[in-house]
Amino acid sequence: MKRTITIIGSGMMGSALAFPAFENGNEVRLVGTPLDKEIIEECKRSGKHPKFDRPFPKGVEYFQFEDWQEAVKGADFVIGGVSSFGVDWFLNEVLAYLDPAMPVLSVTKGLINLEDGTLISYPAYWKTELLKKGIRREVNAIGGPCTSYELVFHDQTEVAFCGKDTAAIKMMKEAMQTSYYHISTTNDVIGLESAVALKNAYALGIALTIGLVNRQHGAEAGLHYNSQAGAFYQATKEMTKLLRLQGADEDSTVLGIGDLYVTVYGGRTRKIGILLGEGKTYEEALDILAGVTLESLVVARRVAKAIYRKAELGMVDLTDFPLMTHVNDVLDHGKDAELPWDSFTFDNTK
Amino acid sequence: MKRTITIIGSGMMGSALAFPAFENGNEVRLVGTPLDKEIIEECKRSGKHPKFDRPFPKGVEYFQFEDWQEAVKGADFVIGGVSSFGVDWFLNEVLAYLDPAMPVLSVTKGLINLEDGTLISYPAYWKTELLKKGIRREVNAIGGPCTSYELVFHDQTEVAFCGKDTAAIKMMKEAMQTSYYHISTTNDVIGLESAVALKNAYALGIALTIGLVNRQHGAEAGLHYNSQAGAFYQATKEMTKLLRLQGADEDSTVLGIGDLYVTVYGGRTRKIGILLGEGKTYEEALDILAGVTLESLVVARRVAKAIYRKAELGMVDLTDFPLMTHVNDVLDHGKDAELPWDSFTFDNTK
Predict the structure, then answer these.
(1) Given this model, what pLDDT does residue B115 score?
(2) What is the structure's pLDDT at B220?
(3) Are B262 and A228 in contact (CB under 8 A)?
(4) Same topology for domains A4-187 and A191-344, yes or no?
(5) Which of A290, B81, B92, B194 is the most exposed place for a label (fewest CB within 10 A)?
(6) Which residues of A touch B342 (CB under 8 A)?
(7) Residue A14: which of A1, A27, A24, A29 has the closest Cα?
(8) Cα nearest neighbour of A168 on chain B
(9) What number does CATH give the domain A191-344?
């Protein structure tokens, strides 16, 4: 069944979703945000996203943001493709004006921490804020290990769509699934969104070890994975604990572990982790990566803040999260990147 | 406190343990098996293991197997460093003649499947077999993400020592821990040993995706991690399920996930997985890897056999293990390596 899908936000992830969406036989309209003007111009001119190696399938339509309402007309659902820095913009400029009956699927990854240490998902945040305006709407979301440029290459990819409205996410799954884009469905919004956000913070912690190996052996040292694996083990342990606190389903947690895996390899988080691991100060690392969007740093800080707050309230024991607190100390207190390895050991003897 | 540690088996892992053992101030005696004659000769001549880039610390002593009883005299404990193909040899030639009061720590990784689908650890197997000879002994074991050549490089490494005799494993931990070798302790022998064995089978499944990417994009295609991460997610899910069936502690499971991570990158399992993923037949892959010890194949088949048997007995549902059964079909039934991606999706909606 052919559907019409409008993607708002033409960054890499939003744009990459145009591939499975169009190739599955749907009409696809890609709308840039006001920051995406040049991207949309380039797409209109060449049919290619400036950051992708392959052109879009012929037939995808492109819109500047001023025409977004026209692009949404007659759509079966809208995909929100903004970064976590665009969460409030998307709320105020799009969701506030969108027909509440129009299903929305968001790819924005992150969490928001409340005063009491609670971490809430963007769909929950949007819902609450929209209710203040008298608008009742659910937002659905995508989680799971998927880097945009690999989706463009038709690499085999496992993701999940989460939302409270089962009929809507099943309709979206049917519209989007292809021979390379495999979609699970779940009502566990907070679990999946938490997994997807937490993995950014933990991928940073694991990437530190790559920089530490470079520091010790030189960047051409070849295979050195023991320390990555040791950090991955601890990250899995802490993520599992935190996700249990968040009330996550086990499947959401495990998909988040897969997401952690791909983020260590594929993302921008890796770059800052390696620089810090090599011994650069936080300021030096940011200088080197000037212009790169580092959502992971925001997430890492928010999660750390939430855990410290939960610890103050007696809800968690900080010693259960030595990797998270270490990442926080490296980012914000100038601590050397070498990991607190002994604190990752356990004693399960009687 | 200085101790005397005798390592029997001078393959890569047994030999690598001489580094933390000696550097922590102990006397270390490395004994070859009858298959290791040339290795020991080379060690005596040059002080270096032929497969390592760095020489042993000066002071490690080397023994041919005919002198093993002398090498064990006065030792505080013995490390068993044979491969899984040497399990019965180690039982009949060493354990059967060793003072039952001498603690033993084994690095051999694997499981043995019984007729009813039960998977038992090598320590349990040795204990049962020795009892038949009237000998009562516990064997302790090492698990966790550790490749031998990285240990030689002093890379940061997280492992666990497991055993029923808490005092013995704590003594061994104290003797072996260094600034780079970090040791957890646990009584969960079956859990840790199962995790360590299972990860071999699952690493093979994940490595298939690397070969599949090479098949599709060429070996120089650069970053392609979505499919690895999708398989890693599924492997984590199935390993967690199987380890729960085995009665594993959660810490053992999570350390096994770290071990899975390092095995995808560092091991021989990776090589055969890539070849099969690229489209080589099982026989072609074995030809290319002629002479390489492939313990992972033995483990993969044993685990698959156990799961099929458990399914026959109604204890598990085979559809919960699509990656494991796929690996088995690729190895033994000539199935193409492309993974059954849709079977990895879940539906957690109401």
Answers:
(1) 87
(2) 77
(3) yes
(4) no
(5) A290
(6) 182
(7) A29
(8) B349
(9) 1.10.1040.10
Scored b (16 or more CB within 10 A) or e, A260-289 reads bbbbbbbbbbbbbbbbbbbebebeebeeee
Domain spans of chain A, in order of start? 4-187, 191-344
Mutate to test the interface with B, among A226, A249, A271, A342 (most CBs of B within 10 A): A226
Q: How many residue pairs bridge chain A and chain B with CB atoms within 8 Å of each other?
A: 221
User: Within an 8 Å CB–CB cutoff, is residue A206 touching chain B?
Assistant: no
The class that CATH gives domain B4-187 is alpha beta
d(C-alpha B45, C-alpha B58), whole Å = 12
What is the DSSP secondary-structure string of B174-239? HHH--SSEEEEEES-HHHHHHHHHHHHHHHHHHHHHHHHHHHHH-TT-----HHHHHHHHHHHHHH
> Using 50, 70 and 90 to split pLDDT, how confident is the model at B218?
confident
Question: Is the Cβ pair A155, B186 closer than 8 Å?
Answer: no
CB contact under 8 A, B223 and A149: yes
E runs forming strands in chain B: 4-8, 27-31, 61-63, 77-80, 104-106, 111-113, 119-121, 140-143, 157-162, 181-186, 347-348
Summarize the confidence of residues B43-57 as an average pLDDT: 96
The residue count of chain B comes to 350
Residue in B closest to A230 by C-alpha: B158
- Put simply, the chain B residues between 95 and 134 with a CB less than 8 A from any chain A CB are none
Look up residue A285 and give its two tokens: 């690392």
Per-residue pLDDT reduced to its tens digit, A238-280: 999 999 999 999 999 999 999 999 999 877 888 999 999 999 9
Are A261 and B226 in contact (CB < 8 Å)?
no
Is residue A62 scored above 90 in pLDDT? Answer: yes
DSSP string, A181-246: EEEEEES-HHHHHHHHHHHHHHHHHHHHHHHHHHHHH-TT-----HHHHHHHHHHHHHHHHHHHHT
pLDDT value at residue A222: 72
Q: What is the ipTM of this complex?
A: 0.96
Look at B223 and A151 and tell me if their CB atoms are within 8 Å. Answer: no
Taking the mean position of all CA atoms in its chain, how far away is CA A41? Answer: 26
Q: What is the predicted pLDDT for the residue at A56?
A: 98
Q: What CA dihedral angle connects B94, B96, B98 and B100, to 10 degrees?
A: 140
In chain B, residues 5-44 whose CB comes closer than 8 Å to chain A: none
Residues B12-34 have a mean pLDDT of 97
* A-proximal residues of B, 71-90, CB under 8 Å: none
**B266 at the A interface (CB within 8 A)?**
yes
